[in-house]
Amino acid sequence: MDRYIRNIYKGVYTVLVGMRITIRQFFEPNVTHQYPYEHDFEKKRNVREIPKGYRGQLYNRIEDCIGCKKCELICPVDCITITGDKLPKGEQLWDSMNVIHLKDGREIIGLIEGEDKKLNLDEEMTVTNITSRQGPQEVVDRLEQSGDESRTQTISGSEVSRVVTRNPVVFYLDQFDIDMSLCMYCGLCTEVCPTECLTMIDTLEGIEYSKFDRTDLIFNFDKQEMYGKDEAETEEAAD
Amino acid sequence: MESTQQTESKIIELKPFTDEMVVNMGPQHPSTHGVLRLELRLDGEIVREAIPHIGYLHRCFEKHSENLSYPQIIPFTDRMDYVAAMNQNWGFCLAVEKLLEMDETKDFAVPERAEYLRVLICELNRIASHLLSFGTYGMDIGAFTPFLYAFRDRERLLLLFEKICGARLTYNYIRIGGVSEIIPMEPGSIDEQNYLDEIESFLDYFEPKIDEYNDLLTSNSIFSERTMGVAVMPAEMAISYGATGPNLRGSGVDWDLRRDEPYSIYDRFDFDVPVAKDIPELGAVLGDCWSRYKVRMDEMKESVKIVRQILAEGLPDGPVMADLKAVRPPKGEIYYRSEAPRGELGFYIVSDGTPKPVRVKGRSPCFSALSALQELSRGLMVADIIAIIGSIDIVMGEVDR
Lengths: 239, 401
Ligand code: SF4
Ligand code: SF4
Hints:
A: 2 domains; 3-stranded antiparallel sheet; B: alpha+beta; Cytochrome-c3 Hydrogenase, chain B; binds iron/sulfur cluster
């Protein structure tokens, strides 16, 4: 009998201890949110952002891709398919270029003068032949206004975060497909890419891209439309 | 068996034999922690035999590995124990590094900074894993609140992992020869400081929470009635089944690879290894479900202790990746084990000197723990099966691989 009452007391007491903890929750802010109507990375109470470098959907900036197929080789699940041919000897889509990533996130594409010397980030560098294709919008605009002279720019080394050298493109990429339904988001392909053109989108668009049809998850990046007619003819001639 | 003696009071009804009834529990059952099917042979409500049928999550990890190069295998190890993927990465990398004979005497070694980052992140991952096990165990037994609390705190940890490696569950963070640089963190930079501060604030928040959870669940009398004295696994039985980690320490065996066979830099940290004891005044018997569970709760505190020591020391400078051109181990074979949250995780690798292994075998702690289930559950009630599965804390992804 004594034990019986003690058991009841113990049961009620320990439950009450637990209740005290749960009741405290009433006075604390919510930790849940109504996904997908609100995202917790919106500026709401439990603010958080998708961190930089989040591994989301793959995106290839195909202009920079040199068709080296390194990504295809490293992918553990073979979800990248690349087919392409070398251009006829002596032809190239464009020359070797430097992609200069600035610290504020912009990038400039051009040739660094005296680039064959060792690159010194402490000094100023002169960039010539800035192309409009990929440059930041203000550079593109200025180039269009002022003709050829402004295709040279001087940047101080302290602004630069890194420089990537883009080799001459001698590949014609017929097909560059990434099957995101196979991808396991390991990020290995983005690490090996020598031109850093293959990236993972670390914004909301790179995370919420569900589709109704599985075939829609195969993303095509290829160079076809960039070549224009001439290139296609060259290709035929080569055949 | 000793376990049947312990539970003799519960098997009064065993005498008048009725027809045996076979019930399938799972594969889709919320408390099977994955996809596990148990074939229960019941005599009324008494379990005569519980036969686990595994293989529903088999994804050919070992066969896959034979066709992949070493760095490519690491994302696959993520999918073994997906609750503690960092530790799985680490276990595999440790084995490959051993096979490559990476150490101070060679010109390439795992840099100091990488070692610190590895311990830091793996201990946090251990907390996350034990939190999940605590939450789901509560839910299996019938308490839903701890589950929500555990996930709330685990979420904060996942955000930390997300910041350092870009993924929430399958990290692929620890690489052969160091850690991933996918999100660069310069030594001494403001990023690093912010990150460490964030961990610090998490620890400050989390440490009192452990006591709160102990009040909430561990000492709850409904919970302890269901777990104390149930399914006692004596030390010899635990050893003979190869149970490791918290399951072994729950049986009173004082064995932790981090302390007894220190790998990486664990010998530099000061931590205790929680071992279960008989607590007669509470009713806990050494080796019962409650002891195994309690070891995990105590281990979280020790992990916090280790992380705090790293934060106090600060991360050393230097690179995070060894100067390794290609991963091409010499001919040979290796078995290396490390202490994952669920026990000893071993990898056996045979190399023939090519960039791809000839054979990879994972020694899964959960598989060994699950094999003890049949003996543990004999003569208990159906409801106790749930308590046992939760207490041995299996992840089916690792059992089946
Ligand atoms: S991230 Fe996807 S595409 Fe890239 S290597 Fe991994 S699985 Fe392949
Ligand atoms: S690794 Fe980069 S440059 Fe090479 S084929 Fe892939 S995307 Fe193109």
